[in-house]
Amino acid sequence: MAPSNVDYSLYLVTDSTPAILGDKDLVQVVEAALQGGVTIVQYRDKVSDTGALVSTARKLHEVTKRHNVPLLINDRVDVALAVGCEGVHIGQDDLDLKSARKLLGKDAIIGVTVASIEEAETACRDGADYLGIGTMFATATKTNTKDIIGTAGTKQILRAIESIGKDVQTVSIGGINASTVQRVLYQASDSKKKLDGVAVVSAIIAAKDPKQAASELLKLVQNPPPFA
Ligand code: TZP
Ligand code: MG
Question: At what angle do helices 50-66 and 26-36 cross, to 10 degrees?
Answer without folding.
Answer: 30
